[in-house]
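In this section we walk through a basic example: taking a raw amino acid sequence and producing a predicted 3D structure, encoded as discrete structure tokens. The instruction is simple. Fold the sequence below.
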Amino acid sequence: IQALAATHKLLSCSRWEGASLREIVDAEMAPYRSNGSERVVTDGPQVMLRPPTAQSVALALHELATNAAKYGALSTHGGNLRVVWGVEHDVLTLHWTERGGPTTCSPSSLGFGLKIVRSGIEEQLDGCVVYDWRHEGLHCVLSIPAAHLVKVVQDPVRPETPTNSKLNGHAYSGLVGKRILVVEDEHLISMLVREMLAELGVGVVGPVNTLNDGFAAVQSEFLDGAILDLNLRGQQTYALAEVLTRRGVPFVFMTGYDSDTVDGRYLHIPVLQKPIEFDILKRTLASSLIKQVA
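The resulting token sequence is shown next.
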């Protein structure tokens, strides 16, 4: 969630035209560059990523960094990390190379975080993720088609030098067993929302990523509530909101844009800001849905 929040901030600064890969890398590496340590080095050209690409890459880097801090090179004082990238033959390739940490070996199965990395890059961006558990540390290669980039400034930059309420996981009793439709076209966001709802004991319908699939779900499924992305692949979801209203199904919106863009007819409907935080989601559903579906 923190990774997505930082990327949303970068995208907002550019009016959602794109985000700098270098700035995304810097943001994720910042916690490991304290006290003048030279354990993290980054290098690569200036690359601007399209908004969905930026979010997928940010989450992938965050999960790789978390894994390195728990089990890899960043878990020991002597470990170091090098993150380099470049664009060639219409492909952005990023190399994540760890050294000096605990000895690694190929796991029998990937953990949840590394599965998110693969899912976000391969399913969302038609890219490729390769994990190579070398003796000296993990080497991971992310490859992304250049179609997902805004622009590339090929002049290379010098390697950068380092710069100096636990959430309650128990389900709300009023939500347990409720069936909530999730309409969202960003794969990573829908996956995170689905996991949060499951933790609350909610039965998730979907997620679906098109208006037609949303209409079909409303027609065929029994629903206690819904969470609607305001902008679905360039289409607003007000038509779906109208159908839910006629059927008496309570719903909330979610968006990565300002909440003041909501149509005047729905100013009374709560709006969740992306990236969704678990505690806010829990409170919003409790106040907006439980009272209406209980």
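Looking at the output, two observations stand out. The chain has two domains: 4-148, 179-288. Residues 10-16, 154-171 have pLDDT under 50 and may be disordered. In the next section we compare this with other chains.
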